[in-house]
Amino acid sequence: MTATLTKDRAAGPPPVGRATGPRRARRRGRTVALLFVFPALLLLGALVLYPVLFSVGRSFFDASGTRFVGGDNYTEMFRDPATLKAIRNTVVWVVVAPALLTGLGLILAVLVEKVRWATAFKLLLFMPMAVSFLAAGIIFRLAYDQDPDKGVLNAAAVSVHDAFAGTSSYPTARARTGPQGLTQGHDGSYTVNTTVTPGGATVALAMVGVLPKDLPGDASPAYPAAGRKAAADEVRGVVYLDFTPGGTGTPGKVDQREKGLPGMKVEAVRDGRTVAHTTTASDGSFQLSGLHTGSYTLRLPESNFAPPYQGISWLGPTLVTPAIIGAYLWIWTGFAMVLIGAGLSTLPRDALEAARMDGANEWQIFRRITVPLLAPVLTVVFVTLVINVMKVFDLVYIIAPGPVQEDATVLATQMWLVSFGGGNDQGLGSALGVLLLLLVIPAMVFNVRRFRRSQR
Amino acid sequence: MNAVRRGLGNGLVQASLVVIGLIWLTPLAGLFVSSLRSAQDTAKGGWWTALTSPGQLSFDNYSALLGNAGITQAFWNTVLISVPATVLVVVLAALAGYAFAWLDFPGREPLFLLVVALLVVPVQIGLLPVAKLFGQLGLFGTIPGVVLFHVAYGLPFAVFLLRNYFAEMPKEMLEAARMDGGGEWRIFVQLVLPVGRPAIASLAIFEFLWVWNDMLVALLFADSSSQPLTVELQSQVRQFGSNIDVLAPGAFVSLVVPVAVFFAFQRHFVQGVMAGSVK
Questions:
Q1: Tally of structural domains, chain B
Q2: What are phi and psi of A18, to 5 degrees?
């Protein structure tokens, strides 16, 4: 515009021309400007603004769109168990995920400043932001697999559990019942029917129900041990698998080829108290020594027979939402950390140094100085995460297995299911879409306000 | 004493960060190792068993993937959707951003406030109405339809970002260019675009990533011949387990491109994602 103005002057136009020239120029400038913004505004109007208005209107009509139903879709939303579940889950997401992420991001941002490889660490944690929710979903479907032989998380859970609680050796074993046999207690343990005395005959405890292939590799025949004599202060015995391949053995008797059950826990009980315990050797033999004279009851505690620990049902109905939030943390923690880290680098160094000089420890500095000074950044991170969490769709859609889908559903997935995924109720679907929009309107107001303030 | 304690504390910090880093790396490593194993091996045991018996690993799944017409078609569809969408968003937003920043036209202020307001509109609300509209226009189930939807929902942020960046340009620079007799178009191409390059790069990377990784939009607007990799793979998730020899390498291929972009353009990438997170 300035350019045309100068040219007009140089040509020395009459007074009238001086008035029309700039006006024409301005009009031309406006046309050019409108040409610049038109394509963007056309798309925004047709595909964003119009759909918002359409959805608001559509949400007041019934499923087929022929009958006006007023606010029925909105009341239905809070009555229908499926949408109610979606609303509840979205609330859980919004309450849990942003707070966890902001906290985790803050802690990591502070810690990572203390190491020299901070950049590498930040890059590594930020990388999942480049990964699609679909790929992340497949990754975590793998990781959360219920079978401890397939899912890495349950493999870890089971090995930690077994390291502390121990594994039971014979979950399927049963005792032969009968006069010389054992009786099963309520807790799954077995008690020998007859009492024993130190120095007495070697006891043979017959078990069945263990497949020969499930026996430990070092299991050896119990026959030699069954014949050994006990010393005066000890009780001896064997626990053996009362089964001869080929079926030639005699039930209740230790035959030549029958193997002992190694690693079985055995207890001697007197007056209701366990006074001695041991574990069977590779031939199934055990000896409880140092016993006073008297009669004892032998017991095989229930830990021998407990079913193996199966790990955690991550993708079951109760844990599926926390599990998906876990996958979400993997994706977004780096974002929170980097953003908070950027805020951290703008903090006044002097304040921190002065506090250190005054003898404040790291925790006091963190609580009293870092966190309050970072409050604006933390707010931005938190609000951003809330907006994103409300719209979470792909992760839930991919990670939750079919039957658990309805336990994991959130607003965005429910909106999809209701409108397109079989529900075919576009009235209710539109209402859910409008609800999503209403939920982000505070953020919209926040954005507009912040922008207008920045313009002044 | 204090120094000792500090050193000890630092060691603890280092150790815990190493552990966290490993935790972050494990899911990705698990996917990659899984993608190199046969479905039978996966059915028998977890991917970590391959660390002790590396004989299980081979690129057979990947070569099978190359022969899988559905997957290769979907990969090209992803490219054909994300590249044009990125270019269009950048071009349209640069034009509009320049006009909002430096040109005078009626309704400039309220229109830009509208753009800011549209920043947070969830994609979900557009699905149904735009599907109807595209049905009438014959765009439903086509690649151009998917592209247009992405462009429209990418624009508010893109215009917002570029307008703010362009507005920072010194006024004298533009006036000098106008003095030299440049038309607005020439000024835009020869001055504004080069000056705005950092912002445009961040925007382009963010937008590319957004569209490449999208599943929701394509799930509705693409049909079986125009669907991208994400939709093709999600259609197979229902039989999760038996088809892990397709899913794992497929997912890995789909994430290798954005992760490569991430490492190649780290700085722009981080800035783009940061700026775009308001979306």
A1: 2
A2: -60, -30
